[in-house]
Design goal:
The complex is a heterodimer of chains A (690) and B (304). Helix content of chain A is 68%, strand content 6%. With 690 residues, chain A is mostly helical. Chain A has a 3-stranded antiparallel sheet with strand order 3-4-5. Chain A has a 3-stranded antiparallel sheet with strand order 7-8-9. Chain B has 13 helices and 1 strand. Chain B starts with a helix and ends with a helix. Classes of the chains: A mainly alpha (690), B mainly alpha (304).
Amino acid sequence: MEVYYLYVSFILLATGAVITAFLKNKSISGFFASFFTFFSSLCLVLLAVEVLLSKKTIIAEIFTLKPLINSSLYLAVDSLSALFILIIALISSSTIIFSKAYIAVYDKLSPRGFYPSMLTLFIASLGVVCTADLLFFILFWELMTLSSWFLVIYKNDNKAALKAGIQYFIATHVATAFLILASVLVYSYSKNFSFLEIKEIFNNLTVNKPVFSHFIIFCVFIAFVTKAGVLPFGFWLPNTYPQPPSSASSFFGGVMSKLGVYAFLRFFLSVFTVYENTEIWGLITAFAGVFSIFVGTIAALTQDEAKRLMSFHAIGQVGYMLLGIGVGLYFIKINPFLSVAGFIGGIFHILNNSIYKSLLFLNGGSIFYKAATTDLNNVSGLIKVMPLTAITALVGSLSIAGVPPFNGFVSKLLIFESSIWAGIERDVWFLIKFIFIVFGILSVFISAITLASFLKFINSAFMGKLKGVDEKKGKIPLLMNIPQLFLASLCIILGIFPVLPLEFIYQAIVLSLNMSLPAFHEIFNSNIAGFSVNLCKDCEAGAWFPIFVMLPLAVLTLLIFSFESYAKSKKREVETWYGGKEHDPEEVTYSGHSFYQPFKSIVSFRIGSIYFKGFYPEKIPPVKFKVPECFLKIFNVDDWIFYPIVSKFRDLISFIERFYSSLIRKYITFFIFGIMLILFLFFYLYGVKL
Amino acid sequence: MNLDLILLPSLVNLVFVLILSPFFDGFTRKIRALIQSRLGPSPLQSYYDILKLMGKEDLKSTINPLFRLSPYLSVISIGMASLLIPITGLIPPLNFWGDIFLFIYIITVVGIAIIITASASENPFAYIGASRKMMLHLSVEPILAVALITGAINAHSFKIGDIVTWYFLNGPNVSMLLATVCVFLSLQALIGKIPFDISEAEQEIAEGVLIELSGPKYACVKWANMSRQVLFCLVFSQIFIPWPFTDSLIINTIIAFVKVTVIVFMSTLIEALNPRLRIDQALKYNITLAVFSLTSIFLALIGV
C-alpha cells in the first residue's frame, strides 16, 4: 500500500522535470517545479513516517531483467532508507522553493538548464536510497552524477564552472568505475545483483577468498568515499560545490554528499557481512574521517569565499560521520554498546548536517542575491538588510560548530564519547586505544576551529558597516526566507528533543544489521527531556538533558534582563569611536581576510614548490615525469618493430616497382610469353594434340 | 534525584561564581596595588564599579540587535557553567544532565557571546580583539579538554561528578597530576589575564572587544570576566585538587573559598610580575602545551 506513495512521488517529480524542460518563463517554471516537488515531498514524508513507525520493510519488484541478466528493479524501503527519504523530502522542497525566487539572479540564463536537472537529481537520489539491486543502484548513482554535473556547468559562460565541471566529471566517473568493477567481481560469484543474494555469497567469500573480498570492499570504499568528499579523494569538492546556483549547492552539500555516506552504510551494514576483519575497515574509515576533519576544516579557516568555505566544511563534516561509523564498525564484535553509540552518532550527524549545511548554503544564496558576490572581503553588515538570513545563519553556524542546545551538539557528543571510550576497552591493543582517543581529541579541537571559521563568516558577512549591497535588489523575497526559517527551526527542535530521532536511528541500525544488539533502553536511559548513554553494560558514561539544562538558563536570562530593565539606563545612539581620530569606515575596515592571520600563518607552510594553505595544497603544479630513455624505447613499439619492418617492406615493393615503371613493353612481352607458356603446359598436361 | 540536593547547591554555586566574583576581583586589585607599592582600592570597589556602570548611559554604535543581547549571554553562560562545578559536595548540581563536553561548550558560548558583541559593535579595534579572542580560545580549549578527558579515562565516565569522586577516593595519580600541571600552566590563558589578555589589551587596541561597550553592557561583560576568573580557579581547585571534601555543605563551601583565594593570589602574582605576550607567542605557547598534555592521556592509558 505504502509503496504507492513512492510511485506517486516519482511520477510527480518526473512530470515536473518534463514540464519544466519546455518552459522558458522563470516564474512559471519555478511554480511548476515547486508545486510538483512539494507534493512529492509530502508523499515521501508520509511514506517515511509510516515505515519508521511500523518498523517494517516495504518491498516491491517493479520489473525484472531476468531473461537477459539476473537483475530486477527491487524497491526496498527499510528504516535506514526512510530516514534518508525524510532528509531528501525536506531538503528538496526547501531548496526548490528557495530557487523559485533565487534563480532570477541569473538573468541571462534560461531556467530550462536548471529545473529539469534539479528534479532529475531528486529522482536519482530517491532511486539510490530505495533500490536493493546493485545494477539499478549503479544506474541511479550514475543518473545522480550526471544530473548534478549539468547543474555544476549551469553557468556555462563561466570558465571556473566549466573547469570544475570537468574535474567533477572525471573524479566521480573514476569512482563509478571502481563501483562497476566491484559489482562485476561480485556478480561473477553471486550470479545475481540483488543485495540479499550478494550478502549470502559474501559470507562464503570472506571465508574462502579473504583477499578477494577485501579488494571488493576496497573498490566500494573508494567509490563512495570519493562521492562523499573525504580527502584525499574529495579534492574535487571545494572547486565544484561553489559553482552551481546556491540552491543546487545546498542540495549537493545537504543530500548528495551524504548519499555517499548512505551507500557506504548500506554496503557495510546490510550488503557485506560483519566478520572478523570488519574492524580493519572500521579503523581505515575512522582514519579517513579524521584526516578529512583535520585538513578540510583547517583549510576552511583560510578561505575568504563563503561558499568555498562551506564546501571545505562539507569535507570536514563528512569526516565526523565517518569517525562515528568507523568506531561502530571497529567495536561491533568487541563492545556492541559502544558500537551502536558510534553508529547512532554518525547517522544522527548525517541527519543534522544535511539540515544545517543546506541552511548555510541557502544563506550563501541570500547573500549572493543581494550582493552579487559571496566573497567575504567585499560584503559586510548585511544584518541590516536581511535580519532573518543573519539570524538563521547564526543558528546554522552554531549548529555546525556543535554548540548546545542546537542539533550538532547531540551527534558530536555521541561521536566524541564513543571514540574516546575506546581507551577504556580492555580487549583492544594499546596503540589502537591511543589512536582512537587522539581521533576524539582532534575532533573536539577541530570543532572549535569550525566555530572559529563560521564566526568569521558571520562576523564579516553580517556584522560591521553595511557594504557591497546592490541597492536595486529589494528585500529578500518571502519565498527565500521561509525555507531558511524552516531549516533553522528544525536545527533547534532536533537539538532540544533528540530522543525520538535517536530511537529511529537505533531501529534503522538494528534492522539493517540483523544482529543481536543491546536494546535501546539498555544503551540510552532516556525520557522526553534527554538521554544518558551507557557505553558498556550498566555504566553510565555521559548525559545530555537539554530541557533540564535549559531551565536554569531561562531562569538566569530572566534575572539578568529584569535587572537590566530595572537599571533603566538612558540609551543614546553614537558614531563608532576610532580611538579619537576621524576616519571613514572604508579606511579602517577589518575584512574577512584579516581574521586569524597569526593562526593561519602557523598552519600554512611550503613544501617544495607547493604552498600548503591550512594543510591544503593551494595550487598543485602540473606533475612532470622523467622516465629513463631505455624504458621509453620499450614502449615505443613503432621504433623497434613497426618502422623497421615497414621500411624493409617498402624496399621490397620499390624493387618490384622497377619492373612496372621502366619496362611496360617488356612486361607485355613477358605477359604474352607467359600466357603461351601456360597454354603450352595446359595442352601438354591434358594431352591435347595440336 | 532529590530537588533539595539540586536547588541549594545550584544556589550556592551561582552565588559563589557570580555574586562573589567582584570581591575576588577587588582582592586581586588590592594585591596588585600592594605589589606595586600603592594603597589600592577597597576589596569591594568592583561591586561599586558594576553598580555604577549599571546606571550609566547606554551608548549604541549600531542598530544591530545582536549587539543588544549578546553581552548578557556571556554572564548567563558563566552562571550555567558554574552549575557543573562541584563546590558543596563531590557531585555538582547539573551532574545528571550534562558532562564534560557540555562544560567545554558552555565555556565556548562565553567566548562566542563576547566575540559577537565585539563584531556587532562595528569597531575595527573590536574586530581585532574578537579575532584574537577566538584564536586564544581555540588554542587553549584543547588543553582543558585533554585534562578533563584524562580524568574521564581514569574514572570511566564523562560526568564531572564521577571524575571528582573517583579522584577523591583513589588519591593522586601520575596522569592526573600531569593534567593538573597543564591546566595550571594554561590557567592565565583560560582566565584571560596577563600575560594572555591579548584580546583586551588596553595599550595596543584600546580594550579591543570592550571598546564600544558602555553602561549596563560594559558592566555585564566586566562582570562576566570577573566571574570567569572565579570559574576557572574553581575548575582547577575543585576538579583537579579535590581535597579535602567533607559531608557538610557549609564546610565544603568554606574550603572551596579558601582554595580559590589561594589560587587567585597565585594568579595575581603571575599577572603582576609578567608582561603581555604577543598573540603569536601565546599561540605557540598554548599549542606546545596542548601537544605536551597528550602525554597525560598516554599515562592514563598505561594506568598510572
